[in-house]
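Supplementary Methods, section 5.1.

A reviewer requested that the exact input to the structure prediction be made available. We therefore reproduce it here, unchanged from the version used in the analyses.
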Amino acid sequence: MSAAAPLSPLADLFTNRWLWASVLAMLLAQVFKVLLILLVSRRWEPARMLETGGMPSSHSAFVVALTTGVGLTQGLGSPLFAVCAVFSMIVMHDATGVRRSSGLQARLINELVDELRTVVRENFAPKPLRVLLGHTYLEVAAGFIIGLLAGWIAFRWIA
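The structure derived from this sequence is encoded token-by-token as follows.
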């Protein structure tokens, strides 16, 4: 009797629960983002599904779902969990630090350009900078919760 043939690399990719739990968490966060805009401002903006920044953080949801899945399957004392946890902390710290600062600076530069446009009467029309780059702590926390729930469901309820 022969051993079962190993899965092909492509089949491995499609059956990788850690990857797909993370992707699902990211997509859920992006859907929540559009739904929150609809609820709060009564505007349908499906294009926001493809943007970074805003409530909740899809980056946080993405990495926390991975970390949760690894923690539940490999153990909280495993080196792989430590790598995922550190990676998640870096992503979340960056979202509230450097990326958030960049977004605030972009907003200020856009305001300065608007003021300068009223002073300069020539064809002065630089393209506005993107403002939604980073996240507040609340947005990151919401992404953390979505990622935690997605990872928990993927590895505790769907097995």
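Helices lie at 9-14, 17-41, 58-74, 79-96, 98-119, 137-157. These observations are discussed further in the main text.
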